[in-house]
């Protein structure tokens, strides 16, 4: 009976069985080598390889693994087969042993119902839990501050901190035999004697049932890349594989069992079927079929922007969809590519060594770094790429997003990361437009959707909320249209920048549709052209089409073809489109178009204000009042003061009843103090009030109004 397996790299796997042998496997060549023959009284139960460090922090101990056995001991064994240390750990069999992600601690669980924490050298630190039933499986949380373990039919999450809240819920109808906690997507996988495996999506309970087996499941293992798992019973074979990746997909199986795996991506008119180490590309438009052959096993692939990027265990292949016969091939430093993200001009590879940005010609552009970088937990929700910008959510402080220039790999702007007030769960950069106007949208742990500019110089940029209860989001690949699943509705923000131009207009620029057909917890896979692809909880894909006219309008406005934009709106006769044109015109300072668009949606007060702006004598005045129109009062005041228009700066504060600031400006510039006092006096008389502000009383004594 094969009792346990463990990954060390993409092309290296160890297994143990009841014949007391430790065997090393190469999944690429299907070769196996016996590493160690254990003593006859040692029956292995669990195996876990020491985690590999990233970059310069690789540790010599990474060449070892822990093996737990039925004699109550765990054994620290080198990859060469030398037993470094054996430790008496439990009364009865040690059923599970797991290193944390930093390799600084080991957790074991035993037949005696105890869960213990050990140092990496095998010294006991603490007994985390003690109960009356055996603990069959144990797993670390992605940030190594909590431990998940089993108790009969229950799953329990216990923090390492004393007196912290313990989570417990019923996971299965039978005894739970195995769990794993994915460090990339925070999903929990469990299986047991009820012949079910289940996915738990924190913090939602109970579990989401994903499948059934014809036999009980004593073991399974999550692959280091992206969430595939395989299970085995009396032998060593592949059961069922599943991936939670949203961008691209992962391929490949383990050992001698990778007969054929089939995947497809119906974007750009192509389907891709992977029979690792081969792939078949089917052009669904003209039925042409191309067979792609690879030297090694396929690990990861992504198809977007007219290019197919395929990562094998040793090399990266870049295919153009115009010519499948001559791929560009370059060697990889590591074979553990866990994420491929594509932009129009380049693509990003994430592996155990770091982040690498390549051009489609295979040239390394940059390799961004930041303190505490952990590539093993990065996924499509926490990394986003555009033509000029790369954004990465920090794991150490989940309120922080690091933003880099794509071409240089250096931090953008003043070098300070973007910091939000609460933890962030998903980020996405828009794909089109000028670098100076690049926007990032993100969802925080309260499921609120925010948008802000990535250009950060000096002062703090305004982070604005544009949605609530948002589960998933995606930017369009061809224009800056944002879509998301918001509570029970599918929502499209046709022009999200409206929130910076005219916040009151934002609801009029939305398209909303009932999302109940997508079932519970759907995820947006892609937003290409006017087609949105959504993956439902059961794994099936749903394709949704939206109106093509907003994208056409974006194209007209980006080329400053305002008359074409007006003709389009008059042809379509849609209030949403007119609202988008109004916001776009104000953002681009085309007041004539803005006046027509606002009139079309019945915003008469704004039409009158725009007319008054057009009549102002100086360019600075017009720009300042346009900033006021957008709600940017401080910027408007700064612009007027810079142009020497002190009285207008004072007047806009008076009009906004910002009395103290108006008086402060008048005193500072020694002009129009009496004007401010006169307006203040008239304001108080209108409301029958008396002056109580000491500052105004002080200046009223020395100035005749």
TrEMBL record:
Residue ranges annotated for the IFT80 second beta-propeller domain, each copy included: 280-549
SUPFAM superfamilies according to UniProt: WD40 repeat-like
User: Can you supply a Gene Ontology BP term from the record?
Assistant: cilium assembly
Q: Where are the WD repeats?
A: 87-119
| Keyword Cell membrane in annotation | no
- The protein's superkingdom reads Eukaryota
Query: What does the entry list under GO cellular component?
Result: centrosome; cilium; intraciliary transport particle B
Q: What UniProt keywords apply to this chain's record, in alphabetical order? A: Cell projection, Cilium, WD repeat
UniProt subcellular location: Cell projection, Cilium
TM ranges are none
Q: Does the keyword Lipid metabolism apply?
A: no
Tell me where in this chain the IFT80/172/WDR35 TPR domain is found: 577-705
Name the chain's protein: IFT80 protein
* Originating species: Agelaius phoeniceus
């Amino acid at each position: 009976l094969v009792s346990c397996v463990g990954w060390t790299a993409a092309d290296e796997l160890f297994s143990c069985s009841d014949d007391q042998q430790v065997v090393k496997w190469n999944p690429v060549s299907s070769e196996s080598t016996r590493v160690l023959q254990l003593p006859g009284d040692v029956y292995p139960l669990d195996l876990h390889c020491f985690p590999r460090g990233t970059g310069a922090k690789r540790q010599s101990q990474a060449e070892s693994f822990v093996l737990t056995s039925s004699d109550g001991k765990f054994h620290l064994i080198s990859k060469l087969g030398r037993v470094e240390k054996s430790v008496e750990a439990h009364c009865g069999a040690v059923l599970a042993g797991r290193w944390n992600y930093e390799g600084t601690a080991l957790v074991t669980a035993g037949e005696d119902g105890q869960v213990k924490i050990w140092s990496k050298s095998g010294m006991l630190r603490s007994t985390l839990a003690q109960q009356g039933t055996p603990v069959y499986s144990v797993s670390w949380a992605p940030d190594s501050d909590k431990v998940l373990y089993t108790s009969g039919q229950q799953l329990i999450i216990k923090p390492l901190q004393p007196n912290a809240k313990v989570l417990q819920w019923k996971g299965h109808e039978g005894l739970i035999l195995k769990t794993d906690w994915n460090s990339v997507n925070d999903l929990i996988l469990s299986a047991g004697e009820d012949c079910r495996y289940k996915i738990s999506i924190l913090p939602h309970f109970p579990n989401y049932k994903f499948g059934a087996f014809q036999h009980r499941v004593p073991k399974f293992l999550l692959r280091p890349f992206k969430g595939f798992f395989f299970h085995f019973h009396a032998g060593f074979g592949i059961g069922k594989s599943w991936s939670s990746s949203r961008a691209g997909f992962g391929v490949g199986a383990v050992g001698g069992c990778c007969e054929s795996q089939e995947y497809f991506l119906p974007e750009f008119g192509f389907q891709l079927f992977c029979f690792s180490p081969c792939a078949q590309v089917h052009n669904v438009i003209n039925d042409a079929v191309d067979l792609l052959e690879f030297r090694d096993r396929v690990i990861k692939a992504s198809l977007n922007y007219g290019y197919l990027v395929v990562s094998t265990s040793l090399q990266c292949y870049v295919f153009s969809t115009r010519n499948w016969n001559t791929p560009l091939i370059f060697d990889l430093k590591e074979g553990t590519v866990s994420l491929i993200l594509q932009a129009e001009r380049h693509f990003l590879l994430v592996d155990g060594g770091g982040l690498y940005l390549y051009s489609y010609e295979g040239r390394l552009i940059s390799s961004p770094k930041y303190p505490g970088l952990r590539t093993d937990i990065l996924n499509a929700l926490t990394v986003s790429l555009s033509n000029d910008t790369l954004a990465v959510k920090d794991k150490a402080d989940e309120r922080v997003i690091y933003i880099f220039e794509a071409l240089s790999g250096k931090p953008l702007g003043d070098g300070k990361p973007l910091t939000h007030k609460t933890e962030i769960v998903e980020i996405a950069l828009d794909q089109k437009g000028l670098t100076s106007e690049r926007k990032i949208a993100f969802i925080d742990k309260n499921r609120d959707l925010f948008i802000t500019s990535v250009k950060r110089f000096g002062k703090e940029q305004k982070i604005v909320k544009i949605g609530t209860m948002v589960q998933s989001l995606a930017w369009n690949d061809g224009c800056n249209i944002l879509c998301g699943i918001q509570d029970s509705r599918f929502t499209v923000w046709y022009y999200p920048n409206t929130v910076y131009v005219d916040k009151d207009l934002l609801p009029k620029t939305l398209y909303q549709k009932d999302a109940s057909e997508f079932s519970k917890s759907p995820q947006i896979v892609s937003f290409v052209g006017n087609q949105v692809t959504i993956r439902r909880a059961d794994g099936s894909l749903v394709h949704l089409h939206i109106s093509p006219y907003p994208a056409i309008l974006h194209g007209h406005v980006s080329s400053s073809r305002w008359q074409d934009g007006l003709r389009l709106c008059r042809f379509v006769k849609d209030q949403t489109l007119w609202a988008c044109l109004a916001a776009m015109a104000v953002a681009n300072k085309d007041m004539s178009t803005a006046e027509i668009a606002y009139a079309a949606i019945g915003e008469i007060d704004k039409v009158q204000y725009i007319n008054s702006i057009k009549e102002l004598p100086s360019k600075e005045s017009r720009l300042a009042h346009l900033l006021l129109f957008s709600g940017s009062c401080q910027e408007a005041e700064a612009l007027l003061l810079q142009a020497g228009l002190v009285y207008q700066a004072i007047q806009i504060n008076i009009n906004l009843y910002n009395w103290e600031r108006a008086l402060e400006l008048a005193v500072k510039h020694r002009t129009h103090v009496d004007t401010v006092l006169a307006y203040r006096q008239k304001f108080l008389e209108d409301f029958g009030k008396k002056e109580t502000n000491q500052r105004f009383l002080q200046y009223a004594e020395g100035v005749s109004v």
